[in-house]
Design brief:
By secondary structure, this protein is of the alpha/beta class. 40% of the residues lie in helices and 16% in strands. The chain is globular.
Length: 305
């Protein structure tokens, strides 16, 4: 399926009641993109290990069992917070702007932690006899077995949670789905929640996510469209802000965070060739150099002093 067709379909889903549920049915039964594959599942766990190692390397409190964890934009399947629990954390708070979890996917996640144990890149013990999650019991099951308080709807700009209560914040492929105008407020709120000496580990993906689905377009495809054109291809269910790495750094530099580590992923040769062929929208052409445009992703580790 051409990405434009999927974008138009998801734009319809974004505008109707229960659109998230219909979109889940669509991705499960039509595009077959949910649940994620075993390969994607293991890859996601490798990224969790990267974040966890950032916590061990930089946080003042290096004992996960004595540390509190916070995540905004926890998503459909809770792979990341469940992994964080299995790595040793005993106090986890996860929020979403809407109740976005799908219990079928969380049950699938829990089962795979049992079934794929030999392939998972860390040692852990999975709780036994976990009840299958249902609408009535899922928050209790997550709390009792994985120490997860799942809260939704909660606005990440104003969570209402206690100040200076969090040791570790993880943001994985979430920032790129947030409108630019909200990112500063979310960072300020995260800073408020964090204890002095705690860290925030961010993985940000600057690629056009439609390219993961449509192999006929490059990871820079979305940079050719004007704001008006992109609005028609950018449904709220699959929102992408198109921000480049420098824009995030500029926002962070206007907060009180200290940047401890900035790891950048640059393109391979064939991707550079693809970018050279794209007629960039004037915003990108006039405000960024080629290297700034080309950055594909980054890890940014931030500290509250």
């Amino acid at each position: 399926m051409n990405f434009k067709n999927k974008a138009y379909i998801q734009r319809i889903f974004s505008r109707i009641p229960q659109g998230e549920k219909i979109n889940f049915f669509f991705q499960k039964n039509i595009t077959k993109s949910l649940p994620i594959s075993n390969v994607e599942f293991i890859e996601k766990l490798h990224t969790v290990v990267e974040h966890f190692n950032n916590f061990l390397k930089y946080s003042d409190n290096k004992k996960p069992e004595q540390s509190s964890y916070f995540e905004f934009g926890s998503g459909y399947d809770l792979v990341i917070p469940i992994a964080i629990k299995l790595l040793g954390f005993n106090s986890l708070t996860c929020i979403d702007i809407r109740e976005l979890v799908f219990l079928e996917l969380i049950n699938n996640t829990i089962n795979r932690f049992s079934e794929l144990k030999d392939r998972i890149p860390f040692h852990y013990t999975i709780p036994e006899n976990i009840a299958s999650l249902s609408k009535l019991n899922y928050k209790q099951v997550l709390k009792e077995n994985f120490s997860i308080d799942y809260l939704a709807p909660v606005d990440a700009r104003a969570t209402g949670l206690i100040s200076s209560s969090i040791d570790f914040i993880l943001s994985n492929a979430t920032m790129e789905h947030i409108p630019k105008i909200h990112i500063m407020d979310i960072l300020i709120e995260c800073y408020r929640l964090m204890k002095p000496g705690s860290i925030m580990s961010n993985a940000i993906d600057y690629r056009d996510h439609w390219s993961f689905f449509d192999k006929n377009i490059s990871c820079y495809n979305f940079l050719q469209y004007s704001p008006g054109q992109w609005e028609k291809l950018n449904p709220s269910i699959m929102y992408q802000n198109r921000m480049r790495h420098r824009e995030y750094i500029e926002i962070i530099n206007h907060t009180n965070f200290e940047i401890l580590e900035e790891r950048i992923v640059f393109p391979e040769k064939h991707e550079i060739d693809q970018l050279k062929k794209i007629n960039l929208d004037p915003y990108y052409k006039n405000n960024f150099n080629f290297e700034e445009i080309s950055i594909k992703s980054s890890y940014l580790v931030l500290r509250k002093n």
